[in-house]
Amino acid sequence: QWTITDDNDTYVLIKRVLWGSVIAGFLQRKNDAIGINAINTVAYYIDTSLVFALLGYDTIDNVNYARELVREIVTSGAIPTVHALTREEINLIFESIEHQGAPDPTTAIGEAYYREKKHMSDLLHLKNTLYETLTKQYKINCPIESRDKIELYKRDFKNSKDVQMLKEIWNEKQNEDFREIHDVVLCTEVNKGNKYKTDIEHYNSYFVTRNSDLISMFGKRLSPAAIIHPGNVIMSLWIHSAQSQNIQQALLTEIITR
Hints:
Layout: H1 2-6, H2 8-27, E1 43-46, H3 48-54, H4 60-75, E2 79-81, H5 84-100, H6 108-115, H7 120-128, H8 130-137, H9 147-157, H10 161-170, H11 178-193, E3 205-208, H12 212-219, E4 227-228, H13 233-239, H14 247-257
Parallel strand pairs: 1-2, 1-3, 3-4
């Protein structure tokens, strides 16, 4: 921050060194990977916790981070996307909170709820206007799926090995598995869309999640993986020929804040 405000020459130099190292890394790849024409219309599917942060229900730092991340995706010409199953999971969380009467103060949602002096009416309003809020306020793509399709996802994936594995890792109760179904479906759908694509420049979709278990489990099945941490989105945008003029500064800021 000091170099930006008080020593702009140093800041420019740091950016140039950073981008020099990035480009050098790409030039070290195998010869047939050089000169690949990248797909520049890419969808970034945002995981549930990031959507809640975007909506203001997380720590202040996470809220600011999620909003800046989505803003950068939009200005870069990519497509921030919230899957229908993600919206379904958000609605189920809202319904659970409504049933309890208030959020658990030990959760990220609860911390924000009490910090911002929210009321249940605020959560219910957000639940009822979720689609409009995401599409209009945050410019997020929200594909609509039928109720039959959502139920089909649940039936098809309920007994999958991946869902059962995640339930064991997260110690979930036997009858509570929507979280795992959601995550496995998103990973599967994104991986399916990038099937047979050996170069990351040709990927047309990513699942952006802070969940290290998912990244570790599914990341081993594709190389390079389409399941990425939010901290890798800026680099991904650059790979796919981002239009934003702030992409260098965004990457530098991301690296500094890790």
